[in-house]
């Protein structure tokens, strides 16, 4: 396969602390031999576990970038055993635009794996992670939240995997993160996900959904800050005591957890995140926006569970995922 065109300006094998870029050539009208400079930090002291920490896989999710720019600034090599590789904004063009997918190619980074060295900018970044960064790592943490169009209960997640020993490692890392909720997550569209790419080559992988609505709050940012420190302690990279609080365990037994709407309109949620519903309970009503006088359409629960995620903001389109349920274990 062709070599990836990205050049790192940091040395992943060198002890100390380095700030640099993953330089992706991007030739265009306003910069003939230009490039995209994706910030990266490497903090390393000796041999030991390697953690790869990423934010802004989707460009409109902020807890990851916030705590990873902070960590890159504050973490020192003497605090570390092994290596911490930090990429606060994995899909940097999407992050700068404040959008889920890249404005350069309209590609969703988390559906672009394994990527392509001769593909679009997002596919090239994915290929670099797939073939260069992921193989270096023992532990991979990828921060997500709901972005502009979803809102989540704050959770860390792991997946059901064929390799049960790996599944247990991922679950232990998820629990070490210690978000208010810990989820065994079901994916509706796993093809091309970074999660899958990391898990398929045996990595200990943790992801999160920490809120949403296209912003971050002190509460969700605090969860992210605590979680990444706890996880690095769990991995043996940082020393010290983890900060523990109670967590609630959720799982998603089947596809009935996901509620899609066939109609667009004005959404009125009747339950809040974290509330319990029984099968048939109304979750939301959708009002027609084109005229007055019509009764709203009701969206009812397909199974029991607590509302783990909901659509945001106030209007929806046909096909939107309106509500996601999970079951407390
Ligand atoms: Zn995301």
Automatic annotation (TrEMBL):
Key words of the record: Hydrolase, Metal-binding, Zinc
Top-tier EC class: hydrolase
Keyword Hydrolase: yes
GO MF entry, a single one: hydrolase activity
Cofactor(s) the protein requires to work: Zn(2+)
Domain Succinylglutamate desuccinylase/Aspartoacylase catalytic: 48-234
EC number(s) per entry: 3.5.1.125
Name of the protein: N(2)-acetyl-L-2,4-diaminobutanoate deacetylase DoeB
The organism of origin for this protein: Ruegeria marisflavi
Lineage per the UniProt record: Bacteria, Pseudomonadati, Pseudomonadota, Alphaproteobacteria, Rhodobacterales
């Amino acid at each position: 396969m062709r070599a990836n065109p990205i050049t790192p300006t940091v040395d992943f094998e060198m002890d100390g602390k380095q700030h640099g870029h993953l330089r992706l050539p991007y030739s265009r009208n306003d910069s003939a031999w230009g490039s995209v400079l994706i910030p990266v930090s490497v903090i390393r002291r000796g041999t030991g576990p390697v953690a790869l920490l990423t934010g802004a896989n989707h460009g409109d999710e902020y807890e990851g970038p916030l705590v990873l720019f902070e960590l890159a600034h504050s973490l020192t090599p003497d605090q570390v055993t092994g290596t911490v590789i930090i990429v606060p904004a994995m899909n940097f063009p999407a992050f700068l635009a404040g959008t889920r997918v890249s404005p350069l190619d309209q590609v969703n980074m988390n559906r672009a794996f394994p990527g392509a060295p001769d593909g679009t900018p997002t596919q090239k970044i994915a290929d670099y992670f797939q073939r260069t960064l992921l193989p270096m790592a023992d532990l991979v943490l990828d921060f997500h939240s709901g972005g502009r169009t979803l809102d989540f209960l704050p959770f860390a997640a792991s997946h059901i995997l064929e390799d049960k020993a790996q599944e247990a490692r991922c679950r232990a890392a998820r629990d070490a993160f210690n978000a208010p909720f810990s989820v065994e997550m079901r994916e509706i569209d796993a093809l091309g996900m970074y999660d899958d790419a990391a898990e398929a080559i045996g990595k200990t992988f943790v992801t999160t959904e920490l809120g949403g609505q296209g912003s971050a709050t002190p509460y969700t940012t605090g969860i992210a800050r605590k979680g990444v420190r706890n996880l690095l302690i769990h991995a043996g990279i940082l020393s010290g005591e983890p900060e523990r609080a109670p967590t609630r365990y959720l799982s998603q037994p089947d596809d009935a957890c996901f509620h899609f709407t066939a109609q667009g309109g004005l959404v009125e949620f009747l339950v809040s995140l974290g509330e319990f519903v029984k099968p048939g309970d109304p979750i939301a009503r959708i009002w027609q926006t084109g005229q007055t006088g019509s009764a709203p359409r009701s969206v009812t629960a397909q199974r029991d569970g607590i509302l783990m995620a909901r659509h945001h903001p106030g209007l929806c389109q046909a096909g939107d995922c309106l509500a996601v349920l999970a079951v407390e274990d």
